[in-house]
């Protein structure tokens, strides 16, 4: 029974953990790295076709974004997630595929002009559509048997609509081991969704540490703070641009903007308009409306029961098409623009930054964590100029950060979460945090709880029956690795993966009737004859 850490080990993004229990193999999350890549991540130790299950803690791309790539490499197993996570992944993975294809097309236009080799997208829409067929939606609190060796249960993590911690019961021989994967633990008293639930028992805990070295300030009155920023910006005659994740943070901003309107907190500009410039955010907002009973907290439910839309108000407008998006920048009055991505790494927000960063009358308001290395982090750190679409833009806009609006629990709440375990786990594995934060928080957990704690690196592997590290991964940092300038065709990689999947299928056919095996062999030989010509 082995647990190997692959992604988000001494890094904040790219969550992925590999668990092998007897003959069953599974991944917990399969996320994309965002921002700077600090350590060399290890590959999944088996062919994608040999993975039986994937468990997804929540829909954010750094936890789900490589599922289409896994599918393109031969994965055909089952993916378990909460109902809301399944619905959000349905839009987010398709959106991610669209971005991959668009960026590859854009790079290839430049490559053709420069006479350079063409590139393939990491994955395409066909891969996203294919992997979505393997999702199995699950309810919170329901214990589900995946195989004779694995049972699971999803617990509300309070981070995002549908987010979860996952309890895993692993059975090998006469031994049973219980693991808890925290996922991303939410900050308490967030608008719309419930607080995180606590779990009482586990042998091993794999927990996040995004804010493991931070203490959130006493939460301000967010609506009043947001009204202040709006007033100051509108008085100058500029736009308020809010980079926000399409799922979660956008809906929270709409909740506070509704309060500003309904409580008349901005009497000088009562009729101000708010533009959501993100088709994904519009679709995600519709999913929020459908998830009232499953995910909303009592305050939000009460509003709905009174017939009040908690994230809708007069003056709210949406931009779906690219033409509608472009027209926003020709509006000649102060407005609020909410657009993705939240860290300014891709999407329509970059166009709005191009049109507003140089304006001293505009404000760029950050309302979420900015991973080091991202454009959002550069702006918050005081960058005087940035490059967008090959053009240097001077930064004259006011850059603000609304503290306390975070989807992640801070250090005290993370400690509160781990201290809720009544019986001490054998070990806590600290992941999903900045390099030094992981080590610092692991030491703090051990000091505060007495539970042995460690911050594993990518490739570190533990035998869960003996509670020992049986393999050590790489500590190599990417900046020390010689850059590979080769252009690798993802299509050829898919062909190799298909061949490996074929071998996996062949091995599973051992013991079948000779007639069936002969027919299978003839089909393979016929295919080989065709392509050898």
Q: Which descriptors apply to this entry?
A:
single chain, 533 residues
Largest sheet: 8 strands, mixed
Give the uncertain stretches in residue-range form. 480-489
Rg measurement, Å: 24 Å
By DSSP, the count of extended strands is: 23
Structural class, from helix and strand content? alpha/beta
Helix content: 25-40%
Shape: globular
- Termini Cα gap: 46 Å
Give the DSSP E fraction (strand runs of 2 or more residues).
15-25%
- Biggest sheet: strand arrangement: 6-5-4-3-2-1-22-23
> How many helix segments?
16
Mean pLDDT: 90
Brief summary:
This protein is of the alpha/beta class and 533 residues long. Helix content is 35%, strand content 20%.
Explain what you see.
This protein has 533 residues and is α/β, with parallel strands linked by helices. 35% of the residues lie in helices and 20% in strands. It contains 16 helices and 23 strands. The strands form 4 sheets. The protein has an 8-stranded mixed β-sheet. Helix 13 (411-419) crosses helix 14 (435-449). It starts with a strand and ends with a helix. The relative contact order is 0.15.
């Amino acid at each position: 029974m082995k647990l190997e850490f692959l992604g988000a080990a001494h890094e904040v993004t790219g969550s992925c953990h590999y668990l092998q229990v007897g003959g069953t193999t599974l991944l917990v999350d399969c996320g994309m790295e965002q921002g700077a890549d600090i350590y060399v991540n290890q590959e999944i130790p088996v062919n994608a076709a040999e993975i039986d299950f994937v468990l997804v803690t929540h829909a954010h791309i750094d936890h789900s974004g490589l599922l289409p790539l896994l599918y393109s490499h031969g994965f055909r197993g089952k993916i378990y997630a909460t109902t809301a996570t399944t619905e959000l992944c349905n839009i987010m993975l398709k959106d991610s595929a669209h971005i991959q294809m668009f960026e590859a097309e854009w790079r290839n236009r430049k490559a053709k002009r420069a006479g350079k080799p063409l590139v393939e997208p990491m994955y395409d829409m066909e891969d996203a559509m294919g992997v979505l067929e393997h999702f199995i939606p699950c309810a919170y609190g329901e214990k589900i048997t995946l195989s004779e060796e694995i049972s699971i249960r999803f617990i509300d993590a309070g981070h995002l609509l549908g987010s979860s911690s996952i309890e895993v019961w692993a059975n090998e021989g006469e031994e049973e081991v219980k693991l808890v994967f925290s996922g991303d633990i939410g900050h308490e008293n967030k608008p719309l969704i419930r607080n995180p639930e606590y779990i009482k028992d586990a042998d091993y805990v794999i927990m996040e540490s995004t804010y493991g070295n931070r203490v959130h300030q006493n939460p301000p009155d967010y609506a009043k703070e947001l009204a202040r920023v709006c007033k100051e910006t509108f008085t100058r005659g500029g736009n308020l641009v809010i980079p926000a994740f399409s799922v979660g943070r956008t809906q929270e901003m709409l909740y506070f903007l509704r309060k500003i309107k309904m409580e008349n907190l901005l009497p000088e500009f009562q009729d101000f308009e708010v533009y959501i410039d993100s088709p994904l955010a519009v679709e995600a907002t519709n999913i929020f409306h459908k998830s009232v009973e499953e995910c909303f907290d009592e305050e939000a439910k009460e509003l709905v029961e009174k017939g009040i839309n908690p994230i809708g108000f007069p003056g709210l407008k949406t931009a779906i098409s690219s033409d509608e998006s472009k027209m926003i920048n020709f509006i000649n009055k102060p407005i609020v623009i909410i657009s993705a991505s939240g860290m300014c790494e891709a999407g329509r927000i970059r166009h709005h930054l191009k049109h507003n960063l140089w304006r001293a009358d505009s404000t760029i308001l950050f309302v979420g964590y900015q991973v080091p290395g991202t454009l959002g982090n550069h702006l918050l750190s005081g960058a005087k100029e940035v490059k967008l679409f090959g053009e240097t833009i001077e930064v004259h806009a006011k850059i603000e950060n609304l503290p306390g609006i975070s989807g992640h629990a801070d250090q005290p709440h993370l400690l509160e979460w781990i201290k809720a375990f009544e019986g001490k786990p054998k070990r806590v594995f600290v992941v999903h945090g900045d390099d030094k934060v992981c080590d610092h928080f692991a030491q703090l957990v051990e000091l505060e709880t007495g539970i042995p704690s460690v911050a594993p690196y990518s490739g570190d592997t533990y035998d869960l029956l003996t509670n020992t590290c049986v393999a050590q991964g790489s500590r190599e940092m990417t900046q020390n690795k010689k850059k590979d300038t080769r252009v690798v065709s993802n299509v050829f990689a898919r062909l190799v993966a298909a061949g490996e999947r074929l071998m996996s299928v062949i091995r599973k056919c051992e013991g079948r009737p000779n007639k069936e095996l002969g027919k299978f062999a003839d089909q393979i030989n016929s295919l080989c004859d065709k392509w050898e010509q």
